[in-house]
From TrEMBL, chain A:
It comes from the Eukaryota. It holds the Pfam family ATP12. Interacts with ATP5F1B; involved in the assembly of the F1 component of the mitochondrial ATP synthase (ATPase). Interacts with FMC1. It is found in: Mitochondrion inner membrane. This is ATP synthase mitochondrial F1 complex assembly factor 2. It comes from Eolophus roseicapilla (Galah cockatoo). Its main location: mitochondrion. Belongs to the ATP12 family. Keywords: Chaperone, Membrane, Mitochondrion, Mitochondrion inner membrane, Transit peptide. The keyword Acetylation does not apply. GO terms for biological process: mitochondrial proton-transporting ATP synthase complex assembly. It is a peripheral membrane protein.
Automatic annotation (TrEMBL), chain B:
It comes from Eolophus roseicapilla (Galah cockatoo). This is Protein FMC1 homolog. The gene is Fmc1. PANTHER family: PROTEIN FMC1 HOMOLOG. Plays a role in the assembly/stability of the mitochondrial membrane ATP synthase (F(1)F(0) ATP synthase or Complex V). It holds the Pfam family Complex1_LYR_2. One of its GO terms (cellular component) is mitochondrion. Belongs to the FMC1 family.
Length: 245, 110
């Protein structure tokens, strides 16, 4: 664990984007590249992460910094298409499509909580998804996968890193599109992702050092991913429209 | 879009979280870029309860997401410190658990 070695954190604008300054030093990625981000709001949020550290630097709490480092270094060296394929592949084992038959109370809960979000995705993207109680999971038509591949291709590389991150955390492409499209809040998406855990907690009781710990961590990661995607894919057209009016 | 709450509540929550988050308090949290950015953004968009403006909704969602992030990180860290922060026990402590004491070895271990 590293001690906090800087007094002041500030941001500045360089050639490649916004940079983070720890005292007079410029922040670098793990692969020693200069840390630059395309969005000022994102830079401010990253700076806040660094400024929040007290005596020691707790990297495991700095989710936005981690996401930026991943986008800048691309340590797994995946192309845009590989990221998209990985994301869409998750649909085959999407949490909200993978249903139990027993116990009946849980099956009912899944139906009541997950059917609406699946229906939303089907309508929003004009695709067929469905759900399944089979161990093989739902059978996703190729046209559905193609639709999602095309949709995700409209995002830039940074945003895609974020999207793939959210999907990995929530274990669901549908829930991830739900937050990215601002249809549900992060808290709701996390709740839906953890539906079975929540059911078991209701039934058997809550264990703070495990359940709440995991819940907070998942919320933090999902929120970081969602914020990251939105800040990396912001366009200035919204502001432009307001000015024209 | 369900359960976002009022913009005012989100705004207040954000300011509260930023107050908690100021690590070394080298300067008041009101001087930090994050505070100023959030205040400016809310002011500029004058987030009201009008449901029609898409830009306002997008900003509110973003603010609520950031609030979720700050809050969850703080709560997670608090839980971590409380339950997982103590590390391993020393050999002396372990011996003490079952009522033993480690022998004094003035010459060091053999």
């Amino acid at each position: 664990e590293r001690k906090r070695f800087y007094q002041n954190v500030s941001i500045s604008q360089g050639e490649g984007g916004f940079e983070i300054n720890l005292d007079h030093r410029k922040l670098k990625t793990p692969q020693a590249k200069l840390f630059t981000v395309p969005s000022e709001a994102l830079a401010i949020a990253v700076a806040t992460e660094w400024d929040s550290q007290k005596d020691t630097i707790k990297f495991y709490t700095m989710h936005l910094t981690t996401l930026c480092n991943t986008a800048l270094d691309n340590p797994t060296q995946r192309s845009k298409m590989q990221l998209i394929r990985a994301a869409v592949k998750f649909l085959e084992t999407d949490t909200v499509c993978y249903r139990v038959e027993e116990p009946p109370a849980l099956a009912e809960l899944q139906k009541n909580e997950w059917d609406p979000i699946v229906a939303w995705a089907e309508e929003r993207y004009n695709v067929a998804i469905g759900s399944s109680t089979s161990i093989l999971g739902p059978n996703i038509p190729a046209s559905t996968k193609d639709t999602f591949v095309n949709h995700l291709a409209s995002y830039n590389m940074w945003a895609l890193q974020g999207i793939e991150y959210i999907i990995t955390q929530l274990k669901s492409l549908i829930l991830s599109m739900g937050v990215i499209d601002r249809h549900i809040t992060v808290e709701k998406a996390v709740l839906l992702s953890r539906l079975e855990e929540e059911y078991q907690i209701q039934r058997w009781g809550n264990v703070e050092w495990a359940h709440d710990y995991d819940l907070c961590e998942l919320r933090a990661r999902a929120a970081a991913g969602t914020l990251f995607v939105h800040l990396c894919s912001e366009s200035s057209t919204v502001k432009h429209k307001l000015l024209q009016d | 879009m369900a359960a976002l709450g009022t913009p005012l509540r989100t705004f207040r929550g954000l300011l509260r979280e930023l107050r908690h988050a100021s690590g070394r308090a080298s300067r008041p949290y009101r001087d930090t870029p994050a505070y100023q950015h959030i205040v400016a953004a809310f002011r500029a968009n004058r987030v009201t309860s009008e449901k029609l403006c898409r830009a306002q909704q997008e900003l509110h969602f973003q603010a609520a997401t950031y609030l979720c992030l700050l809050r969850s990180v703080r709560q997670h860290e608090a839980l971590h410190q409380e339950y997982h922060g103590r590390g391993e026990r020393s050999p002396e402590e372990v011996a003490g658990l079952v009522g033993f004491r480690l022998p004094q070895q003035p010459g060091g271990k053999g």
